[in-house]
Amino acid sequence: MKKKSLISRCRLGLGAALRYWWGHAASLKATKRIYSKAWPGEKTGDQYSVTIKISPNGSLYRVTQSYYVNGTYRNENTWLASYGWHSNGHLISLGRTCYLIFDPLQKLLYLEDFPDEGERTVDIYKQV
Fold this sequence. Notes:
single chain, alpha+beta, Lipocalin, eight-stranded antiparallel β-barrel, 1 helix, 20% helix
């Protein structure tokens, strides 16, 4: 097997580091967006929607999840999260077990929730 030159190995390493950095830069940019999910009510015909807004709060992020029925505000949940640098950009909540995973290319946000009681859920939100 032929050995690769030092320059080609450095180029490969630099390329991998740049792809990693670009992925995180895109995820950090995605934290500045608003995400939404809407669905019709099965029995009532009402239109339900949830929006997620993420704002910096010191070295953490404040996640606000707002609920609407027929466009009318109902209530909201707010929690703090820290940014994780492992493999992709994501937020890890503090005080509860949920993760927000960014997909900047598809303009999606995945909210994975592990409640104390009940089943794990994964909700998909689209960027507004």
